[in-house]
Amino acid sequence: MGQDWTQLERALFDPAGHPGRVAVAEAVRELMRAVATTTAATDDELGEVAGRLRQITAGIVAGDRCVRYPLPTGPFSGRVLGSGDPVFGMFNPVAGPLVVTIEPDGTAAGVLTPSPLFEGPGGAVHGGYTAFLVDAVMGTLLRALGISALTGTLSVRYLALTPLARPLHLSAWVESTDGRKVTAAARITVDGRPTVTATGLFIAAAGPAQG
Ligand SMILES: CCCCCCCCCCCCCCCC(=O)SCCNC(=O)CCNC(=O)[C@H](O)C(C)(C)COP(=O)(O)OP(=O)(O)OC[C@H]1O[C@@H](n2cnc3c(N)ncnc32)[C@H](O)[C@@H]1OP(=O)(O)O
Prior knowledge:
The protein has helices at 7-11, 19-37, 43-60, 127-144; strands at 78-80, 99-102, 108-112, 149-158, 168-178, 181-190, 193-204. The chain is of the alpha+beta class. The chain has one domain (1-211): Thiol Ester Dehydrase, Chain A (Roll). Strands 1-2-3-5-6-7-4 form a seven-stranded antiparallel β-sheet, covered by helices on one side. Strand 6 and strand 7 (193-204) form a beta hairpin. The termini are close together. The structure holds Palmitoyl-CoA (PKZ). Palmitoyl-CoA is lined by residues 71-74, 76, 80, 82, 85, 88, 135-136, 139-140, 143-144, 150-153, 179-181, 201, 203, 206. Keywords: Apoptosis, Cell membrane, Cell projection, Cytoplasm, Fatty acid metabolism, Hydrolase, Lipid metabolism, Membrane, Transit peptide. Residues 122-193 form the Thioesterase domain.
């Protein structure tokens, strides 16, 4: 924990200032989607691609140290711009990235069209992935409200299969606060129909903010 980030790590929180990192993350995102879903390339061709990819990776890995991206704490409203995190992070190929806005009324609203990489049963979105999304939107809302908290208990109710390749509309709000315990709620809606609802019991840090 602690906030002993290096200058580089602080500078990396500004995605607009690092178009190369944003571009390479987007290119790798497209690559992952292609690798997982291709029907065009043969197994031999993909084996050759693997060799070329390893060379590229060797070219951008300078050492064994991973950069750490700070998670800021608000108060904040507006569009959330993430850097390295797996949900909003514009530098992270795993991130959607999810576009979330913190509204002036203290709620969060977001939209994301899930990648086929997160396919679950029935050609729908994997339930673990939708749980990940609602947890992240609630956790981010709390951070934007100035509360540095960890998820203590996450409860997810799956109302219907969440379809792939359709925009998922996420919303989150705070239900109640009881000392360090903050209860937040979230919902995923597709084409106006709720498919997932969730409640998160978050425990606020007893001491200084956790980055
Ligand atoms: C500027 C803004 C832009 C933001 C731009 C950021 C972009 C990017 C944002 C990404 C946002 C990602 C959001 C992901 C959110 C995670 O993924 S968080 C990771 C998953 N969670 C964890 O790993 C938590 C692991 N657990 C722990 O660390 C500790 O158990 C906890 C939860 C901190 C609690 O420990 P503790 O502080 O010692 O708590 P303790 O004093 O024992 O208990 C305090 C109270 O809480 C209750 N409690 C404790 N644990 C629990 C529990 N698990 N469940 C229910 N109640 C509990 C106790 O019963 C107690 O209640 P009371 O007796 O007071 O009534």
